[in-house]
Amino acid sequence: MVILALTRKAFLERRVNRLSVVALICFASVSFVPQTVRATPSFARQTNLACIVCHTEFPILTPFGRNFKLTGYTMSAGDFNLPPLAVMLQPSFTFTNKGQPGGAAPHFGENSNFAVSQTSLFYAGRLFGPYTEKLFGSSAAEFLNKFGVFSQLTFDGVARQLVWDNVEFRYADTGTIAGQPLLYGFYLNNNPGLQDPWNSTPVWGFPFSGSGLAPTPGAATLIDGGLAQEVFGVGGYMMISNAVYLELGGYHTLSAPFQRAVGVDPIGEPEVYGLAPYWRLAYTKSVGSQSFEAGVFGLAANTYPGRISNTGHDFTFDWGTDVQYQASFGRHDLLGTASAIYESDSWDASQPLGNTSNNSDHLWSLKATVDYLYDKTYGGAVGWFFADGSRDALLYSGSANGSALSDGVVLQVNYLPFNKGGGPSFWPKSNVKFSAQYIIYNRFNGRRSNFDGTGRNASDNNTLYLEAWIAF
Questions:
Q1: What is the pTM of this model?
Q2: Which candidate, 304, 242, 245, places its Cα nearest to that of 273?
Q3: Contact between 276 and 304 (Cβ < 8 Å)
Q4: How far is the C-alpha of 396 from the C-alpha of 405, rounded, in Å?
Q5: pLDDT digits (tens, 9 = 90+) for 231-281
Q6: Domains in the chain, start-ordered, CATH in brackets?
Q7: DSSP letter (8 states) at residue 8
């Protein structure tokens, strides 16, 4: 890459405006490095801290971990020499109460499927790792080390395709405002909400992983992954006096050729017309080993359904609220989260195209989770989810009576044998998480657990998912 080939002398001779240089670096990286974001040992190696400093169990962030993220993934012990690389493997097993005729996915059977769900390579940490000063000199390094990256190149073992996932670049710094401490930053990423430092919003909410070989409910809000990896956005944020978090960003759909180049199929996706604003406001307070957060977030988007623009556009407005409580008492770590999202949709383009029965619809999504970890090693979680909204026979054509209604419980147990230690000396800070997850559906796409004569039972979709989440 041309940017990386610049010597210190060339950098100084060109005397390019620093912000322009960094913007070019970021866009060049996005264009040529297809990459998702998880818990990454490269961060631990960069800071020379144990994984449990930033996470209780990954990817749940501690207050220190949230601060690390807000400061742009750039904190460093100053004595690391390894590149900011990490690898993740997720071998898994999926069993549903009733098999799926024709196979759970191409190349897989109807039930009891083994897979390596993901194989990933991360580049995450300071943008130039520990090499900034060597590349650009100490003067430039003081500025460039305020830029961080969170990136992942993934081979999807279910789709059998190489794809990019979540990608983010950040710049962060500190100052004061009205005499109060201020932490502020700017980001570029490809998923609304990826930048959020709490585990109570959709991108980072429980369950943190799941099977790609099991049926899932058909109704979801746009902000809950509906634009992930299809858009590119910029935004800014600030944390005032370690208490008030403010953020504003905007997103636009990436071109179809670019999406295909990074493994994303653009067929049928909503194309954002203009700029879709994303906003976030939260209040947080810490008392001893306890922390609390309450906030709101939202997204508004004009979209062309299926990237078809000759019938006008639809409009979607998502508004959400969330709370999080976190505590650490000796060997006990506790996390409680809850969120509610309301979505309103105007189908001015989709209805004429025959995609929806109604001219407008609405959708509710509710989630709540309690996660417990003992001695940083043994854990369990219980999550409840609920979605319901307008009946629309075309929009929810695979459901009973056009219903968006689905609800149920997720039960999970975790074992992290190396969470308090680390990996081998030549590649330290490695970790592994063994999980057994069971999803129980009360209603699934409008159908109840008891047989109602309209098709597959809700309970037929109950899923046992076993996974080893290996990061090194």
A1: 0.88
A2: 304
A3: no
A4: 10
A5: 999 999 999 999 999 999 999 999 999 999 999 999 999 999 999 999 999
A6: 24-471 (2.40.160.10)
A7: H
